[in-house]
Amino acid sequence: MQGEVKFYEHLIKHDVPHIAPLLCGGDVPRGETGTHKRAEQTDSYTISRRYLHRLVLGFVRHRLTQFKCTRELAVGIFHAMEAHWKAFEKARVLHRDISVNNILIDENGEGILVDWALAVLLDDQGDSSAIERHGRTVHTLQDDIESFVHVLGWTILCYLPGLMDEVSRREWVRLMYDCSRRNERGQEIGGERKSMNLQLDHYLPREFKLWERSPILELIQTLASPFRVRYCNPPTEADKRLYDFVRVEFSNGLLTEEMLNADSMHKYTLCVEQLKNSQWFLSILQDALERQD
Q1: Which helix (H) or strand (E) element contains residue 282?
Q2: pLDDT grade, residue 135 (50/70/90)?
Q3: pLDDT tens-place string over residues 263-285
C-alpha cells in the first residue's frame, strides 16, 4: 500500500485539479496500527496492515456541510467529482473513499477532494474500472460515482431547511444512511433502503419539500436516475430481442423518437452508458450550475 503523500505527488504530476496543495508528510515512526488484528478477530473483512500517516496541506477550507447556498453545495460536489474523474482518467487512481468529510470548500468557494489514503493505482492491463481481490469484485468506479450521489442526498436531507418535521426527517436519514445488518458471514452491510429507492427511481422521499424554490431536488433526482439499473433485474433475452425490433422500427421511420425514448429497454441501455464513466454526471452538474434559476 502506498502512503498518501505518494498519491498526492502522483496526482500533482498528472495535473489533477481540485486537490489540496501538499506541503509535506509521511509515515509516523513505529506507527503501525492494530486495525488489521481487530478485523481478523471479528472474522469480518480481511484488511491490510495500516500505518499512521501525517500530511500538511496548504489551504484554508470549511466542511461541505457549511455551504453558504445550494449553488456552493453543487459546486463543491462538481469540483470534487472532476478531481475524482481526472485522477481516474489521467493518473489511473481510484479514490475509493468518497464521503461528506472528504469533500471540502476552499476560501474561493471551490470544492476540494481530500483523503486519498484508501486510493489505489490501477493496473493498466485489462478492465481497470474495477479492483478485484481473490476473483471477487471489491470496488468500482461506479461505486465512487454513486457515493457522490449519496453525499449530495445526505447533505440535502440533513441540512436544507424544508417542510418535513424533524422527527420524520431524522427517521428518513436513519433508514437511508444509518441502517445495517449482518449477513450470513457476519459482515456488517447497509444501504438496502438507498438501493431500493434507486431501483424505484425516486431517491429522496416524495414528501420532502424545501422552504424556498431550488433546482437542487431536481438535480439529485437526475443524478440518481441511472443507478436504478445497478439494482433492478437485468433484461432478459426476450427483452433484448424486442428492443432490437423496436430499433429497426425506429430506423425505418415507423416509430417516433418519443416512442423510442419511452421504451423500457432503451431507458436501461441509456443508463448503462451513463454509468460507464463520470462524464455524463459532470455534464449534468455543469448544466445545472450554468442555469440562472
Answers
A1: helix 279-290
A2: very low
A3: 999 999 999 999 999 999 999 99
* Cell 481526472 sits on residue: 86
* C-alpha distance from residue 239 to each of 152, 233, 244, 251, 271 (Å): 34, 12, 9, 18, 16
State residue 284's pLDDT score.
98
Rounded Cα distance between 188 and 19, Å, is 31
Q: Are 226 and 274 in contact (CB under 8 A)?
A: yes
Across 64-76, b (16+ Cβ under 10 Å) vs e yields bbebeebebbbbb
Phi/psi of residue 24, nearest 5 degrees: -170, 175
Comparing C-alpha atoms, which of 4, 8, 30 is closest to residue 18?
Answer: 8
DSSP state at residue 175: I
pTM above 0.85, yes or no: yes
- Alpha-carbon distances, residue 84 vs 37, 107, 286 (angstroms): 31, 20, 15
Whether the Cβ atoms of residue 87 and residue 11 lie closer than 8 Å to each other = yes
At what angle are helices 166-173 and 141-159 packed, to 10 degrees?
A: 170
Dump strand ranges (E) for the chain. Answer: 22-32, 51-57, 61-63, 93-94, 103-106, 111-113, 120-121, 130-133, 136-140, 180-182, 188-190
Tens of pLDDT, residue by residue over 197-246, are 999 888 999 899 999 888 999 999 999 999 999 999 999 999 999 999 99
Residue 124 confidence (pLDDT): 47
Q: With the C-alpha atoms ordered 269, 273, 276, 282, is the resulting torsion angle positive or negative?
A: negative
pLDDT in tens, 188-209: 778 888 999 999 888 999 899 9
Instruction: Locate 265 and state its grid cell.
Output: 429497454
